Every structure is written in C-alpha cells, then in structure tokens.
Amino acid sequence: MKSSSSILGIDVGGASLKGAIIDADGQPRWAGARRFPLWKHPERLADELQTLVARQAFDGVALTMTGELCDAFETKSIGVQHIIEQTKLAFPSAPLFVWQVTGRFAHDLESLIDPWQSAASNWLALAEYVAGLFPDRSFLLVDVGSTTTDVIPVRDGIVIARGRTDPDRLATRELLYRGVRRTPITSLLHEARIDGITYSLMAELFATTLDAYLVLGKIPSQPDDHDTADGRAETIPFAIDRLARMIGSDRTRFVLTHAQELATQIEAEHRRQTVHAVEQVVATADLPTDFSIIASGEGEWLTAEIARTSFPSIKLISLAEKFTPMFSRAACAWAVAYLAQHRL
Measured at the alpha carbon of residue 334, what is the angle toward residues 330 and 340, in degrees to the nearest 5? Predict the structure, then answer.
C-alpha cells in the first residue's frame, strides 16, 4: 500500500464496533463507534460495519479484533475467519490487512494460517501506536473499555508486555476482564450493605457495571440504547430497577439512594481490582521509577480516579485530553489505521 493512501481502521469487538480514518497526509479525519452485539447477530456484521462507516471514502482497511471470543463462534479460529470474511464483504473494493499479535500486518488470507495470531490483537495496536507518540517515555497504558481493561507496560518506547494471547495476558494480569458497562455485578461483589442491612447478592445477570455508573452519574443516560442486562433503556430509572433485583427487590421498596449505596460499593470494588492488576503488572515490568500512566478508553475517567487516589505521585496523561474523547474511545481503531499507513 502507498504511504499516500487513506486508511480505515476497524476494531471489531463482541459488543461494539469502532472505526477511524487517517487521510493520506497522516491527519485524522473521522472516528465513530456503534453498539453491536456480535454474539447475538454475527451474520449482520458486514451491514453494521457499512452503517458505522456510512459514506466515508478510504483506500485500504486495517482490521483488529476481539470479537472472535464471543460465544457465537465454536472456536477462536472460526470467529477470526468470520470477522475477516464479513469485513471483506462490507468493503469489497479496498485491500484488507489484519493486525496480529506478532506486531505485524498480514493479508486477509495469510492471516488465516494461524488465526490465533490475529485474535484479540487490538491492545497491541494501541500500545505500539501510543509508544510511538512517546518514544522516550516509559509508561503504563491503562485502557478501560466496556468489557475489559488492558494494563500494558512500555519502557523507553518499547512495548514490554509479557503476554500476547488472552490466556497469557489473563495470567500476567495485563488483561483484566472488568469494564464500565458489561461486567456482571456478582463478578465484583457477593454481598453489599444497603440502608444498614447486609444483603447477599443474587448470582444472576440482573445488572451490570453500566447500571452502577448510570446512577452515580459517571455514564450519561442514553434512552435509545438498550444494550443492558434486561434489554430496557440505559436510563437511571431502569438502572435502579436492575440494581434492585440484585437483592430481590423492586422499585416499590428500592429507591435511588439505595441504588447509589450499592453502586458506590460496586465502584469501590471495581477500582480495587483494577489497582491490584496495575500493581501486579508494575511489580514485574521493571519500569523506571519515573514512569507515567496513560489513560484511554470508554472508561478513561476510572483510570484517572485511580491514578489520583492510589498513585498520586505518578504523572497521568489522558488521551481524551490530548486529542478528543472520541479518539480515546476509538483509540484502537485510530492506532491500527496509523500503523497500517506507516508500516505497510
């Protein structure tokens, strides 16, 4: 591909799609995100990608993914192949390059030789891109998304993560399967104290972290979005309903103050687990004492709060402040587009 080409970066997750375009002159032109439960409707991926990108023009497509893990696919290999085929179907006239955990791009057919190399690769694209932004700096990149958190060490501009695949990264704590929207409440808390009474929480998918952050005002209401535990809208009244069910109650007895009590405890445990992951990665990464924390992702605000309270002496850099909130949210798509333009 010519260095003068415009590139569409696509990040296909199990619950959302993100895209970004970098023009031939290297300047970012567009970024977008779209909720899409791939695990429910894998056959609609091509249509959803076209809707996401709409009428944008570009010369080539760079693809990264995590959606191959969703349970619509029997194996990761099947998931990777499906995502690649649907992306080609969505953009048939543009050459497609697939980012891999080897740190290089593969042509679409080449990437199917070992699909595990293409699976769950978006974290490395982001890390390589941000390392290029700060080539002389050592830092911990903390990317908090709707479902997961990546904790990636970078020393002197070089990504030094020990894990590459999902299993390896879970073992090193460089991948934490906790996010600000889709994490079930009982993966964080088993009991909670509300209005002076300690309740055992129901081990059922009645509510997620989204509901906690809605009632705490950390995530804005989106009445048109129904990607919730019960399929009802992302609003505070429905969030209260969902949280009430965690103790077998309902809106006639469980009110906003009760929901806020529960949500505060959910947030505290979410932060505690994230801090623990950061501490474990720092302990093994051999970073210099003057390293920084770089925050990105939909839940960037959570990283910022953690940095201020648990690591106050460490410099915090916000990608949303350095660029735009949408850049931070769609950072992996930006990253893979930039890498394709500069490395192919």
Answer: 150
